[in-house]
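Final report, Chapter 2: Outcomes

The project's central promise was a pipeline that accepts a single protein chain and returns its three-dimensional structure in a standardized token representation, suitable for archiving and comparison. That pipeline is now operational. To close this chapter, we reproduce one record exactly as it appears in the project archive, with the input sequence first and the structure output second.
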Amino acid sequence: MHQIPTVLQELLPTWLEPQEELLAVVRWSRWENKGEVRRQNTLQHTHSILFLAATVLPRLVEYGAVKDQALILSALLVHDHGEGILKRDVLYDNKTIGGDVDEYKAFVRRNERLPTKSWNALHRAFLLQFAHKDPEDILAFPLEAQVILEGLEEDHAGDALIFSALEHLD
């Protein structure tokens, strides 16, 4: 049997574990159990939202509304990884800054061992979902995240709005 290269061994947990975790987290469980919405797990949501983005973003690019399409797509890919790690789905109305920070910290623990360039890109992408938080809420995040969030709000406010719109649409 061939040996897996070290760089791939380093990626295995951050590549494989979310697939299993997101599969196990049922979205909208409060309504799904009552038969009011279709059953959807978070892995299905990730697939669905990326498909939606692949159809919508090219049009938005044409209108000059998108600054960094790769950032938005990466954010959509990883935005629920913290929930997967924590094995929960938090409905939009029930989100708290404490819960957001818990998800962020779980995401960091899992992924910070990635090669630097990969980590930096995914770190920024994960934080895009929080870029429009109230400045006082941003202070609940660790300092490194605060700096990134300030930069995202300053340089990618439109991308953060597009991310949010796609997230709410799906």
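Archive annotation: The longest strand covers residues 26-27.
This record, like all others produced under the grant, will remain available to the consortium after the project formally closes.
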